[in-house]
Design a protein that fits this description.
Length: 251
């Protein structure tokens, strides 16, 4: 989707068909400059705070939300799921790598620049979750933890839908032999080719193992490292890069 600000938001066909407001930001349409150009949505990467604020304002307007609607936590590459009720604020410094909206009218969001962004939704109840899965979170099963948290609230995993957003692909994600071996033991030989790790596939397998049908899991966008015109990439840009925002609105 392209907006008047030339800001592109990637969307899941399945989420859109269910009437669930959501999106995965790309890097165009903002005001940040240099390696952070232009829609950097990360506040801890050395960008001008005014530019980050304007970028958030532009994304919120494009998504049809009020500025400040996006609720996010401090991401620490862990497996904690933060559950939000109605009008529940997130205290400053609160750490979590998945945020679950258990009440309607909440927009939850996570930030990435290679890690796997996952959005989950229960079209029946309107409950949603946003998940940040780097290799540590993936190893800890953060996606399955989010599914489990939704199930504890009464959402059947078989009725959930999932959208996996832009992330670094196995084409570009080479890891140490030790780490590759750990993931082979965790998820099977299909997730590693040589020393190239497929984090997207591992998370897909974990979602399936948690009870979400394969047909209900959709991948949106491509490899963040391959496409520098469209995506930020921590690996490609040696850490000096912006952040994307992946968000979903509870119904």
């Amino acid at each position: 989707m392209t907006t008047p600000d030339e800001l592109e938001i990637l969307r899941s066909e399945r989420f859109a068909a269910a009437g669930i407001a959501h999106g995965f930001s790309t890097r165009g349409g903002g005001v940040s400059t240099g390696p952070l150009a232009s829609l950097n949505l990360g506040g801890s990467v050395g960008d001008d705070p005014g530019a980050v604020e304007e970028n958030h304002r532009r994304l919120a307007r494009a998504a049809g939300f009020e500025r400040g609607a996006f609720r996010s936590a401090v991401q620490v590459h862990g497996s904690r799921v933060l559950v939000l009720g109605a009008d529940a604020p997130i205290p400053p410094g609160e750490e979590a790598d998945a945020i679950l909206a258990a009440a309607p009218g909440l927009a939850v969001a996570i930030r990435t620049a290679d890690c796997v962004p996952i959005l989950l939704a229960d079209p029946r109840t309107g409950r949603v979750a946003a998940v940040h899965a780097g290799w540590r979170g993936t190893e800890a099963g953060i996606a399955a933890e989010a599914v489990r948290a939704l199930a504890e609230l009464g959402s059947a995993p078989s009725e959930l839908i999932a959208a996996i957003g832009p992330a670094i692909g196995p084409c570009c994600y080479e890891v140490s032999s030790e780490l590759a071996d750990r993931f082979v033991r965790l998820a099977g030989p299909e997730v590693v080719e040589g020393r190239r790790l497929d984090l997207i596939l591992i998370n897909r397998l974990q979602l399936r193992a948690a009870g979400i049908p394969e047909a209900s899991i959709e991948q949106v966008g491509g490899c963040t490292s391959c496409d520098d015109s469209r995506f930020f990439s921590h690996r490609r840009d040696a850490g000096r890069t912006g952040r994307h925002l992946s968000f979903v609105f509870s119904g």
